[in-house]
Amino acid sequence: MLSSLSIRDIVLIDRLDLEFASGLSVLTGETGAGKSILLDSLSLALGARGDGGLVRQGCPQGQVIAVFDLPPDHPARLVARSFEIESEGDLILRRVQMADGRSRAFLNDQAVSMQALRSIGAALVEIHGQHADRAMIDPATHRALVDGFAGLTGDAEAVAEAHGRWRASEKAVAEAQARLEAARKEADFLRHAAAELDTLSPEPGEEEALSERRAAMMRNEKSMADLRDAHDALGGDGAPGPALVSVLRRLERRREGAGEALTAALGALEQALTALDEAQYNLDMALRNAEFDPRELERVEDRLFALRAAARKYQVPVEALSALAARYATELDALDHGEAHLVRLQAEARHAEASYRAAALSLSAKRRNAAQALDEAIQQELPPLKLERARFMTEIVTDPERPEAAGFDRVEFHVATNPGTRPGPMMKIASGGELARFMLALKVVLADRGSAPTLVFDEIDTGVGGAVADAIGARLARLADGVQVLAVTHAPQVAARAATHFHIAKGEIAGGQVATRVTALDRPARGEEIARMLSGATITDEARAAARRLLEA
Length: 553
Known about the structure:
With 553 residues, this protein is of the alpha/beta class. The chain has helices at residues 35-45, 75-82, 114-124, 142-150, 153-185, 187-200, 206-235, 240-252, 260-290, 294-314, 321-381, 426-429, 432-445, 466-479, 492-495, 523-535, 541-552; strands at 2-10, 13-19, 24-29, 61-68, 91-98, 103-107, 110-112, 125-129, 391-398, 409-416, 424-425, 454-458, 484-488, 500-508, 514-520. Strand 14 and strand 15 form a beta hairpin.
């Protein structure tokens, strides 16, 4: 419920802090005292359109703060969380209106968009009154009201789910048809390309491996000639090895008595021969390692050039050829099996449509029965509200050619306020006071079918009195057993039924300015105010006695 409302510098209100209780609260006062300003301020906090003209003259900005005490599972908290707003504890809606027309909104001190503020505000408060722009009776909500009255919310959700499945299956059919049509247009190319790439059989990483192998073989080809020349120089006809061996043998025969110099020379020759043998051995190893089959180089180059040619042809990197081959194979498979797959999807779509239409037609029948019961219940509420000559009817137009998530039905409340007149949309036919009373009758009938936690009725007793005003008060009090009700009223019969009574008046403040003041009345003060409402400016003893009787009743 709305637990408090703080207003700063809005029109005639300079500073106002109100605490609200559960049950029925009424606001009374002379015309022009500021009752509408109070409701305009609340509407501003709930996301209504801002206007720089709402700011008190001479002030740079105005501000309204509305605090709501809600159970943990209240839908408003779910709405807040959908906008990623922390919603623990009280919900505090704050609206700052600048004199230049700019406006800012906050929820629990977190800046929010006006859309978020309006969405949350709609779950917190409903305002019904003389002004259509403030009455939350959009025909778009009438279908949901009928469903709520008859307990058809679950059926409506099932229809919405069936509609979603049908639309999803239709989307799948459209996508499959598009893929199949595209595949048919490119069937020849796909078959040729798939066959060519299948023959080529590219492998991931193959180009890099082939390039490295080709580069290595080309390096070996260049080094082979030098290795052979070196090998021939060490082991060919002109090789130094045999000559050195011959010299070594002759010198060894002269070793004795030849002295140390010859011995050293012989040692050096032996080392030279050993080095030559080692060099020749290593050259042999190098030659064997460098050997390659020229035909292998040719095969590597042919494979590498074939891969690169295919990459150029299909305008992809060589590395992507294997993936492209897989994709073409998949598309060919889709083409080969697409017709059967499409037939299956079309059958599923027809089944989904049939299920949706059956559920929607069943819901339409239930809605018509519910609408008749709703009309009868509301019709019984109208005579005490001085609408005894009026008729209320729920207009349902069922059009299977316009399937929606909510079914085939467009629902709108129609009324005829006088006998013999043609019924029409309630928003267009009923006057301001009649509209508010129709909405009161609706709210009474739907009281146990879910509602915003706070209902506001703005002067719905205009133009009525006596028994009718008492009937309005009785129904507001009945509503207040389940939800918080705030009522701006001129009827003493309504005011007497309130649990809390606020009096609104204008008075002078410092500087000779005028400001609106709101006072919570105790029982004696309530008696005086109700007496004033009964008698006018001059309060008589008879009016006081009548006020006491109303309060006691």
